[in-house]
Amino acid sequence: MNENAFWQLMDACTPPTPDPDAERLAAALTSRLSAGPLTAVIGFAEQLSWALYRMDREEYGHDLSSDCFLYTRAAVVAAGRETYEATLRDPRLFVPFAEDLIWAEPLLYVPDRAYLHITGEEWDRDTRYSYESFSNTAGWAGVRPS
Length: 146
Prior knowledge:
The protein is an all-alpha fold and 146 residues long. Helix content is 55%, strand content 0%.
């Protein structure tokens, strides 16, 4: 799955009404991915990890706990490509997500749930980029997060 396919899938699964914690988005993504090939699940996991990793930088998470920072970054991804890319260009757009505690934790479990549905097994996965907070060392150059 390439980046465009990732964002197209996100858009296709976004509910038409507000979904504050991205629970319906996550359910729709899981359902869609569970019906497809395992390669789509793996590709989705890679693209999601890359998107979260790219936003794992000091200018976004300098005052946030590890979990809060991760779930908030997931919320920016859940908001869609336009919001995500605008936020990458202007970190000030991240502030309302953090201040209002807009989280999308369920998005993080989509690949694991789809994998389980397809294979019947838990996925002990690794992606090329870690989405865990503070793993992008270049984004935190010179800063030692607590």
